[in-house]
Amino acid sequence: xxxxxxxxxxxxxxxxxxxxxxxxxxxxxxxxxxxxxxxxxxxxxxxxxxxxxxxxxxxxxxxxxxxxxxxxxxxxxxxxxxxxxxxxxxxxxxxxxxxxxxxxxxxxxxxxxxxxxxxxxxxxxxxxxxxxxxxxxxxxxxxxxxxxxxxxxxxxxxxxxxxxxxxxxxxxxxxxxxxxxxxxxxxxxxxxxxxxxxxxxxxxxxxxxxxxxxxxxxxxxxxxxxxxxxxxxxxxxxxxxxxxxxxxxxxxxxxxxxxxxxxxxxxxxxxxxxxxxxxxxxxxxxxxxxxxxxxxxxxxxxxxxxxxxxxxxxxxxxxxxxxxxxxxxxxxxxxxxxxxxxxxxxxxxxxxxxxxxxxxxxxxxxxxxxxxxxxxxx
Length: 378
Ligand SMILES: NC(=O)c1ccc[n+]([C@@H]2O[C@H](COP(=O)([O-])OP(=O)(O)OC[C@H]3O[C@@H](n4cnc5c(N)ncnc54)[C@H](OP(=O)(O)O)[C@@H]3O)[C@@H](O)[C@H]2O)c1
Ligand SMILES: *[C@@H]1O[C@H](CO)[C@@H](O)[C@H](O)[C@H]1NC(C)=O
Ligand SMILES: *[C@@H]1O[C@H](CO)[C@@H](O)[C@H](O)[C@H]1NC(C)=O
Fold this sequence. Notes:
By secondary structure, the chain is an alpha/beta fold. It has two domains: 2-170 and 360-376, NAD(P)-binding Rossmann-like Domain (Rossmann fold); 180-355, Dihydrodipicolinate Reductase, domain 2, CATH 3.30.360. The chain is built from 16 helices and 13 strands. The strands form two sheets. It has a seven-stranded mixed sheet, with helices on both faces. The radius of gyration is 22 Å and the shape is globular. The mean pLDDT is 96. Pathway: Amino-acid biosynthesis; L-threonine biosynthesis; L-threonine from L-aspartate: step 3/5; Amino-acid biosynthesis; L-methionine biosynthesis via de novo pathway; L-homoserine from L-aspartate: step 3/3.
């Protein structure tokens, strides 16, 4: 049986779902000849590890306990207070040091996958160390890949040791498909995608003639948006995904070189206007302009979509008119979609579409990434 050791950073919605998948798919993995050993789980404050990482992983009961503690909103430190079982809990800077120690111990010997399911920009330092120590890296977190080019280059230095399928379109095989196209020498001419479930929903509702303010309020009530919907409306999350795709195509760019259209103006930004004020008063001021754009698009046989566009040296994120009868134009609801045009996919683009968010699909993407690196393990 191949043993794949894993350290998980972040046990929010995605991280916990990953732990649950690992535990419940044990027999499936056994049939495939692999066993996943979880040798560490961390949240923003602490890290739980088995007493002897060389001998054993955290046991499944403990992993379930971690999930229930975290879904109850408690910190992982509470595990330490329980004081039972064959594990230890480290706090604060000690947990970072311990993670590095485990990377040192396992990275070059039995191998270790460092999985980042946090939403933090602080994990990048640990990831850099882990790469140096010969570890593999799997990311659901976009921030390490959208940091400086120096960080990016180091992360992808050995492409066999990094997977990040869930950073773009959750579990959808966008990165894997692109890697296959790239490695076959098929030059990618353009990528156009709708990569935000929230903005996908908003744009397709606008098409039916509903005002922006109403649609956004409804989206928030349905739980489709971040707690502050402006985090979605700013386009920043889509821009991060665009940057990851552009860098995958070899473009040497940083976040600042991406042209991003925000759906709200500067004077309504967080810090100037509260969320409530924005939703009750601010956003309604944007209704008319959007309504006119929707009508103009419609008279051209088009609909509006919030897309990322990568073509030549240009990377842009914003509202575009797209033909009603194109794959993007037909998109409804919160699905993600990516259209890739290349030499082989010229007249008709390669289209990848489906759920682009959700803890389950995202965690499934992370798990598949881990299993995909099994050949690097003894
Ligand atoms: N949910 C989706 O549909 C989806 C889809 C695609 C990609 N993603 C990405 O997947 C990641 C996780 O998403 P999520 O929804 O699970 O987020 P989340 O619920 O906010 O969970 C984030 C977790 O990371 C922990 N954390 C924060 N800083 C950390 C650090 N420095 N070291 C270790 N752990 C740290 C948090 O700890 P505390 O519990 O102590 O706060 C929390 O447990 C994000 O990067 C997100 O963008 C999510
Ligand atoms: C993901 O998990 C979080 C935390 O458990 C939860 O609040 C959220 O509703 C989940 N999202 C989905 C789409 O299941
Ligand atoms: C970690 O912090 C928790 C709560 O603050 C405390 O109960 C525990 O003793 C600390 N553990 C260590 C190893 O310092």
